[in-house]
Design goal:
Number of strands: 12
CATH class of the largest domain: Mainly Alpha
Number of helices: 21
Radius of gyration: 42 Å
CATH superfamily of the largest domain: Peptidase M41
Structural class: alpha/beta
Distance between the termini: 80 Å
Helix content: 40-55%
Largest sheet: 6 strands, mixed
Shape: elongated
Length: 612
């Protein structure tokens, strides 16, 4: 039990004992000595009673003449008349007993009260605290977790792969260390800095690094902690948070998942959202009210900037927005260097090679990759990590865990082998495509019966129309190989068809790459870091039925063209397809050095491109 609760309980017990003692003394002091009921009957017969007051359990009255001890008033407990006559017949002295029920009455209302108070103290309040509500007197208090430099333990040296963001935030650090230097020309640091980027790119780590680098208190709170069931509580927490920061200035306030607090306000909406709107309004007021020269900097992070309220993003509130994007190859090498410092590894571990195999990986993904490789090495009781551990970890993350228990029959294995070899052979035959790194027909993950991994040779940020068509042809290589060799198609190309259809639809509706449709954008959907839009229903079509028909025909034409190109390539290289598939059936897994074509340039002797 908490020490404060022990002190309060001691005071309560002392008060109860004091009340009980006083009541016992008062009863003893003020109570009239009871008169035996038999004497009362005798006094009645002797005509010595002047008056009586009859109550439910006793009779109180006054004598005509005082007794020898001076008593004039008396009290006696009533006895049933028939029983009293029976006792009097035998000459027995009898009397009733005046019972005192004050203890029972006191406990009757005191014990339930104490019980319910205890339930409130030890159960209800603890449940409320776990849900972030606290006591009734602490509803408006901030739940911010305060960190100082020794607690964060993170600096810019611990954050890699986001060099541009660190350059932007270094100004904040310099201002917190020497605000006078920045104010000599009238400039002031931005009030708010919004970190925007996909999940896992290190936005929270970067904010903690700013506090650790500047050596100032770090107030960290999630946007969801401001929203409560009671209207006005979130606004009170915002005020309390900024008040704490002012007292500890210079300081950094960090609000994670800002979209939970700053979602755009709707006009004419049905239903009440007063709590969220009041909390957002209070945040806007605080951003307008505090002076940045006092040394308070507000950092926030979100991966859904498209849902934020425009009033929150205007100049003077969040003046600066910093994109923390997925790292490029150089950034991935830097991140791997940070996470591999404490890992014992062999000399064959090539971080450049690992970074080339992991395009699109975020910092969190790379940290998970290093951990998975360490776990694989631990399982085989190795003392160091090898390149094989990292390759297996990449396959585990990308394709899933190997399913050796999923047994395929001979026909299914043959279909999967030709399917995967079709992907690989088409990719090797087209110029500009990433070289094939590994092929396997071992089932992995939830539904993958085989997989083909390509290793990018360089970072690509733009895709030409021809590059997209080549990518579509590679995706159709599996279905084309099945149709060409087995004269039948299977359900194994379901995921390939999803991807190729998406690429073709984007080419027609978003990128303007269809000669039939023209350079008109029909898909106005914005790119979201979390994918998808924020409207739950279907998108409204803003074009006619005739245009929709032309779009469908253009998409189908692109897919059919990719299928024709893949079939043409595999027909010309049928011998290599058969050799590769048979070798894959024997070994189940082939690396780049074991593929049936030794020199990829040998496959590019003929022009397999088709006219637009």
């Amino acid at each position: 039990m908490h020490k404060t609760h022990q002190i309060n309980l001691s005071y309560a017990l002392f008060a109860i004992m004091l009340v009980v003692s006083f009541h016992a003394w008062w009863v003893e002091y003020s109570q009239v000595e009871p008169l035996p009921y038999s004497e009362f009957e005798q006094y009645l017969r002797d005509d010595r009673i002047a008056e009586v007051q009859i109550r439910d359990q006793y009779v109180e009255g006054r004598l005509k003449q005082p007794l020898a001890d001076g008593r004039e008033r008396f009290i006696t407990t009533r006895v049933e008349p028939s029983f009293a006559e029976h006792l009097a017949r035998y000459g027995v002295k009898f009397s009733g007993v005046v019972e005192s029920n004050w203890v029972r009455d006191l406990l009757g209302w005191l014990l339930p009260t104490v019980f319910f108070v205890a339930v409130w103290m030890f159960l209800i309040r603890r449940m409320a605290e776990k849900q972030g509500m606290g006591g009734l007197m602490s509803l408006g208090k901030s739940h911010a977790k305060v960190y100082v430099e020794t607690a964060t333990g993170v600096g810019f040296d611990d954050v890699a792969g986001v060099d541009e963001a660190k350059v932007e935030l270094r100004e904040v650090v310099d201002f917190l260390k020497s605000p006078a230097e920045y104010g000599r020309l009238g400039a002031h640091i931005p009030k708010g800095v919004l970190l925007v980027g996909p999940p896992g790119t290190g936005k929270t780590l970067l904010a903690r690094a700013v506090a650790g680098q500047a050596g100032v208190p770090f107030f960290s709170i999630s946007g969801s902690e401001f929203v409560e069931m009671f209207v006005g509580v979130g606004a009170a927490r915002v005020r309390d948070l900024f008040e704490q920061a002012r007292q500890a200035a210079p300081a950094i306030i960090f609000i994670d998942e800002l979209d939970a607090l700053g979602r755009a306000r709707s006009v004419g909406q049905f239903g009440g959202h007063d709590e969220k709107e009041q909390t957002l309004n209070q945040l806007l007021t605080e951003l307008d009210g505090f002076d940045p020269s006092t040394g308070i900097v507000l950092l926030a992070a979100t991966n859904r900037p498209e849902v934020l309220d425009p009033a929150l993003l205007r100049a003077g509130r969040f003046d600066r927005q910093i994109l923390v994007d997925r790292p490029d190859k150089v950034g991935r090498v830097q991140i791997l260097n940070v996470h591999i410092k404490k890992i014992s590894r062999d000399g064959d571990v090539n971080l450049e090679h690992i970074a080339a195999l992991t395009p699109g990986f975020t910092g969190a993904d790379l940290a998970n990759l290093v951990n998975e490789a360490a776990l694989l090495a631990t399982r085989r009781r190795a003392t160091t990590l090898t390149m094989s551990d990292f390759n297996n970890a990449i396959e585990r993350i990308v394709a899933g865990i190997e399913k050796h228990s999923r047994l395929l029959n001979a026909e299914e294995r043959r279909t999967v082998a030709y399917h995967e070899m079709g992907h690989a052979l088409v990719a090797a035959s087209l110029p500009g495509m990433d070289p094939v790194h590994k092929i396997s027909i071992i089932p992995r993950g939830i539904g993958a019966l085989g997989y083909t991994i390509q290793r990018p040779t360089e970072e690509r940020f733009l895709m030409s129309r021809q590059s997209l068509k080549d990518k579509m042809a590679v995706l159709m290589g599996g279905r084309a190989a099945e149709s060409l060799v087995l004269d039948e198609i299977s359900t194994g190309a379901a995921d390939d068809l999803d991807k190729i259809t998406e690429i073709a639809r984007h080419m027609v509706m978003r990128y303007g790459m269809s000669n039939e449709i023209g350079q008109v954008v029909y898909d106005e959907g914005k790119e979201h870091f979390l994918g998808g839009g924020f409207s739950g229903g279907p998108m409204l079509r803003e074009h006619s039925e005739a245009t929709a028909r032309e779009i469908d025909q253009a998409v189908r034409a692109l897919v059919d063209e990719a299928s024709t190109r893949a079939t043409q390539i595999l027909t010309e290289r049928r011998a290599l397809l058969d050799v590769g598939a048979h070798k894959l059936l024997e070994q189940e897994t082939l690396t780049a050095d074991e593929l049936p074509w030794v020199n990829r340039q040998d496959l590019l002797h003929s022009d397999v491109r088709m006219s637009d």
